Amino acid sequence: MWSSAWLHGAAASDNVLDSLLPWGEAHEVVAADDATASALDLPVTGGFPAQPAQLLGTLRRLGTPDTRLVLPVPGDVRGLGGGGEFPKAALAAGEAVVLPGAGYGIVPHHIAEGLVRWTVHPLATPGPVTPQDVGLEHLGLAEAEHGLTDAIRDSAGALQALDVASERPSVRSELSARLRARPSPDWPDGMPGRALRVLQRAEEIGAILEVASTEEPGGALSASAAERRADALRPLSEAVRTARCAAVNEAVRVFADQANRP
After folding, report:
1. Most exposed residue of 75, 92, 160, 252, measured as fewest CB within 10 angstroms of its CB?
2. How far apart are CA 93 and CA 108, in angstroms?
């Protein structure tokens, strides 16, 4: 969202770089292969890495590319664009940024305490391609928000039957601790209110899911109970991922539209 705001004149580059701090004290950028390194003027993996400011310059040279968030999991790799190393890296990280029009994807990886490495990969289908070419179908924010609400309602009975809270009296304190530990990023001026609301709600439910899916101390949960719990939580987890992507991608769209207005 910050890079989109900067590319479209709604944020300063210093603000974009500062926005990275909640995720790590230091960030570095590399290209996954020699061809990408040469095309984007970035160091290749294994060389001395570049700083995030250099990646911003690369994005500018690409011509304010469309950027999309993807949160792949096993069984759902929409948006990764087929074969190659990018889908593998994105799936291992569970998150990536796709630049379909430019033909690249960027994967963050926490390589040490406080250090995040961003690796730029070529998409399997050479750019420029459309979002649909890499499986990025548009999902409206209203649809994603309704899906999240429906998933909460549909999962309520199953979650109550699991009764995680009674099995673990400390569950409320665990949830509070997880929420406090999550990064608290700032948002660009002009961030659409509904997108922010959906994103924040998805983050809160995501924290609940993390607590609910964590095994009890001592590993007391049986295999069958663990499977029932996973089945109950899966639709809600999918709805959270969908809502996060829709909220971020809607904000990116809004910043682009604001810049294109006369």
Report:
1. 75
2. 7
* Sign of torsion over alpha carbons 111, 238, 125, 66: negative
Paired tokens of 186: 């700032």
CA distance 257 to 179: 33
Of 91, 63, 83, nearest in space to 126 by CA: 83
Q: Quick: pLDDT tens for 23-48.
A: 899 999 999 999 999 999 999 999 99
Burial zone of 181 (CB within 10 Å; 0-12 exposed, 13-18 middle, 19+ buried) = exposed
The HSE-up count of residue 171 (CA atoms within 13 Å, CB side) is: 17
Length of the chain: 262
- Asked if 209 and 240 count as a contact pair (C-beta separation under 8 A), the reply is yes
The residues pairing with 104 across neighbouring beta strands, listed in sequence order, are: 99, 122
Q: What is the pLDDT of residues 195-243, one digit of tens each?
A: 999 998 888 888 777 777 665 544 445 677 677 777 778 888 889 999 9
Phi, psi for residue 115 in degrees, rounded to 5: -120, 125
Asked if residue 30 lies in contact with residue 120, where contact means CB atoms within 8 angstroms, the answer is yes
Q: Are 20 and 55 in contact (CB under 8 A)?
A: no
**Position 132 pLDDT exceeds 70:** no
Q: Taking the C-alpha atoms of 44, 47, 53 and 59 in order, what is their torsion angle to the nearest 10 degrees?
A: 0
Of 104, 153, 151, which is closest to residue 125 (Cα–Cα)? 104
Residues 138 and 131: beta-carbon distance below 8 Å:
yes
Cis amide linkage into residue 128, ω under 30° from 0: yes
133: region left, alpha or beta (phi > 0 left; psi from -120 to 50 alpha): alpha
